[in-house]
Design goal:
about 100 residues; alpha+beta; Histidine-containing Protein, Chain: A; 4-stranded mixed beta sheet; 4 helices; 4 strands
Length: about 100
């Protein structure tokens, strides 16, 4: 049993319950990232997470207000535009590198 993952999951559940993070936003962002074969990672503070990972993404979204995405791959130009659009749709500031 991975205690860290369980603790993270409980923190996410609490944040969802008290409205700190919005599930619809997280799901939309993770699903949009999954549309692309490119690697899409999110940098927030000292964390680096795969945007296609719901748990990793949710932990990052509850602890930051400014986001930096790093996107590499065959479809990176399309992914950069789509990811910027989806973050901005929810009023999140994002920098694409």
């Amino acid at each position: 049993m991975d205690f860290k993952k369980m603790t993270d999951a409980f923190e996410v559940a609490r944040a969802i319950e008290n409205g700190t993070i919005n599930v619809k936003e997280m799901v939309t962002i993770a699903h949009k990232a999954q549309d692309f074969s490119s690697s899409i990672v999110l940098h927030t503070g000292n964390k680096i997470v795969d945007v296609k990972s719901f748990l990793g993404l949710s932990m990052s979204l509850m602890t930051s207000t400014h986001y930096k995405l790093e996107i590499h791959g065959d479809d990176e130009e399309e992914a950069k535009k789509a990811m910027k659009d989806v973050f901005e749709k929810y009023g999140m500031k994002v920098e694409i590198v």
